[in-house]
Write a structure and sequence with these properties.
Layout lengths: L2 H8 L9 H4 L5 H19 L7 H10 L8 H18 L16
Helix pairs in contact: 4-5
Length: 106
């Protein structure tokens, strides 16, 4: 990775997911920790603000887009974020369909 691309990626590391405050209560501690450190970076890869420079990043984008199965921890966490966002955009004032989500891995 050339220096300018590396610097672009580094700008996003350590920045939290844009909506972590509103969905964080639905996430496990581990998921929140990952999203607080890498959430903005994941989001930037997905919205095109950052171009992927490694095979792993390409895989992440493909998995998050549903083109391939999510297999890594980050891919699975991102899929969970998308699922939560979708559910809350459809019914923002309703609890999750499966309330067991509230007690999972706490």
């Amino acid at each position: 990775m050339d220096k300018s691309k590396r610097e672009q990626h580094i700008k996003f590391i350590g920045k939290s997911l844009s909506d972590i405050a509103s969905i964080g209560w639905l996430l496990t501690v581990r998921e929140r920790n990952v999203l607080q450190k890498y959430g903005a970076w994941m989001e930037a890869l997905m919205n095109g603000s950052l171009q992927p420079v490694t095979e792993e990043q390409e895989h992440f984008i493909s998995a998050a887009s549903g083109k391939i199965k999510a297999t890594t921890e980050y891919e699975l966490i991102w899929k969970r974020v998308l699922s939560i966002r979708k559910e809350y955009s459809e019914k923002p004032n309703k609890p999750p369909k499966d309330v067991r989500i509230l007690f999972r891995n706490r």
